[in-house]
Amino acid sequence: MATNTEHTGNHAPGAEKMYHEDTSTNSTANGGIHRQMTHEEHQTALAASRFGYGPLAHVSSGARLPAFGGEFQPGLYKGVENRKFANPAPLGLSAFALTTFVLSLINMRTRSVAEPNLVVGLAFGYGGLVQLLAGMWEMAVGNTFGATALSSYGGFWLSFAIILTPGGFQIEEAYVSQQGELAFFDAFGFFLMVPVSRQSHPRHPRRQDLTPLANSSFLPTQGWFIFTTILLIATLRSTVAFFFLFFTLDLAFLLLGIGYLHRNDAGMPNPPVIKAGGFFGLLAAFTAWYNALAGMLDDSNSFFVIPVAHFPWSVKGKELRQKAKRAQLE
Q1: Cα separation, 308 vs 146, whole angstroms
Q2: What does DSSP assign to residue 130?
């Protein structure tokens, strides 16, 4: 089971190299005495280094590190010990998690709250701006996947908030006053890159219309379902925690889209399906917080680290199996 210390440069592939090339340790204050570790001492230090302790704990090997959701890295990536920037992934994950958490509670009609107005503030400030900034910092540290994902979802929340701002930008009012409600929902469908399903308005059978935006804020989510599926594919060789984040988010987008596109007899979004989408949104939010916590905890600030579970077919999983086989042979 992988831990955070395995992804912060605190593991020991480089330690073995150091043992053969330069294992002098325990110098005195005046630098006059040096000695090499014995084989038994090296094995003990090597075992301790895997948990972030001992003289070999912070040896840098220059090798690539395995996939880790706490760094928002779905594949091998360069060591971070000499990085000038802090890890921006936990910030972006936390911004995504809280905004998704609140909206999912509304989708589940928690305590009968049904209007998404409260999400506007979060979508502007935290899920939008802060997550977008985290995505740009991911670009600075060289993480293409993290920059693409966090910046895209940050931009989504910002644009989503702009459209939903009551009376602020008057986007809906402009369409309704000039071309009718149908034109606005068609344009909103273009914004999310999917065609909007039409049906007869329940109170005006001759008029092709849709329910108000307040009741269909996630009407055409299939565009974002496609985008999230693309990101999901990139996590197939990472960790269970990382994959589960995008898997649950993908299901949330899919179910919300189905719930709003296939309404009930009254022309309203299908409540059971919308609630199911909200449930998977909650799972995505908590998984995002889990990955954020994994990215923050290490032996310097915590008494424990949390597992992220590498897939057996991942690079780290194969490495662990090979180590187990070598241990059996010894």
Answers
A1: 17
A2: I
